[in-house]
Design a protein that fits this description.
The chain has helices at residues 3-25, 30-54, 62-71, 75-81, 89-101, 103-108, 111-120, 122-140, 149-158, 168-175, 181-204, 213-222, 238-259, 262-270, 273-291, 300-309. It is mainly α.
Length: 316
């Protein structure tokens, strides 16, 4: 097998795993998935803090023991009883966290999806970069004082350059330095709802036919520059869909580009669990309504509420 064949095989395996994860994501509402992924990303920062310290210190430092007592009750006692497994303590912690904090996700089959989104979280990349750099620094010069978890977390979140520059994640992390988190989150929420509007219109409209009156009214209220104040609704064509996306995002996109944080905005929108769910629900509507059109199409607010709750699990 050539190097090129091997690379293609690895790429295909990764693509298959991504598709499996995205299918597993549909088992729970996106908010539950997002909360789980964010929690795992936070634990990942803690695990790498434990790892960098325990790979340097000969004994378990007091600051790490205290963190275990407050965050992982029972872990140290279990660790002392199971010394024979000879796993590094950070690895044992990883297994403990998975078993105790994410047992439901594992039991219900969406843990791989949770992990997928946790590794899409920019904090995970920032943590890995900080770990690599800290380990390299400490290899040459032992630290005078070990960082507390709070200090470590602050350093991770302040990281602005990744080990692999030029990637999508590296550009996004670099851009984080030019925008406050609440403002970025507000822009992400607004853009997600803007894209949701375009996907709703696409779901309830027939290609090549005028959009419904209710849809036209919604568009005039939300995007007045796209439609005349009165008259028949426009034909639903691909260019109108693109226009909805561009028009709904133009304000934030312009601001983010001028201030240098568009890479972060785009990354957070495209890789957001809600955006993936909206796309899935849009396709679900097309599939169902092509077979049996509803008596009345839902309003945007009703469609969005159903899309946000949409999942294929047992409780769906």
């Amino acid at each position: 097998m050539t190097k090129r064949d091997t690379a293609n095989l690895v790429l295909n395996v990764r693509r298959d795993r991504k598709q499996e994860a995205l299918q597993g994501a549909l088992l729970v509402p996106w908010r539950q998935l997002a909360e789980g992924a964010a929690a795992f990303a936070e634990w990942h920062m803690i695990i790498l803090w434990v790892r960098v310290i325990t790979e340097t210190a000969e004994q378990l430092p007091e600051i790490v023991q205290s963190a275990f007592q407050s965050r992982c009750p029972g872990f140290l006692e279990r660790q002392s009883r199971e010394q024979e497994d000879k796993l590094p303590i950070w690895k044992s912690l990883e297994e403990w966290v998975t078993a105790h904090c994410f047992a439901r996700a594992r039991a219900e089959g969406w843990f791989d999806a949770l992990m997928y989104y946790a590794y899409e979280d920019l904090r995970t990349e920032q943590a890995w970069t900080t770990w690599e750099r800290t380990k390299a620094d400490w290899r040459h010069t032992a630290p005078v004082r070990l960082p507390t978890l709070e200090q470590w977390t602050s350093e991770v979140l302040a990281t602005r350059s990744l080990a692999c520059p030029g990637t999508e994640k590296a550009r996004a992390v670099h851009a984080l330095g030019t925008v406050e988190t609440p403002r970025l989150n507000k822009a992400v929420t607004d853009l997600l709802e803007s894209r949701a509007l375009a996907l709703w219109v696409d779901a309830v409209s027939v290609p090549g036919q005028p959009v419904q009156e209710a849809v036209s009214t919604e568009l005039r209220n939300r995007c007045p520059i796209l439609l005349p104040a009165s008259g028949l609704g426009p034909l639903w064509i691909r260019s109108l869909f693109s226009g909805l996306l561009r028009g709904g995002e133009s304000s934030w996109r312009g601001v983010a580009r001028s201030e240098g944080w568009y890479a972060a905005l785009r990354y957070e929108v495209v890789h957001h669990p809600r955006y993936q769910r909206l796309i899935h629900y849009n396709q679900h509507c097309h599939d169902e309504w092509s077979q049996a059109p509803p008596k009345a199409y839902p309003s945007f607010s009703d469609w969005l509420g159903t899309a946000d709750a949409y999942c294929t699990g047992r409780n769906a």
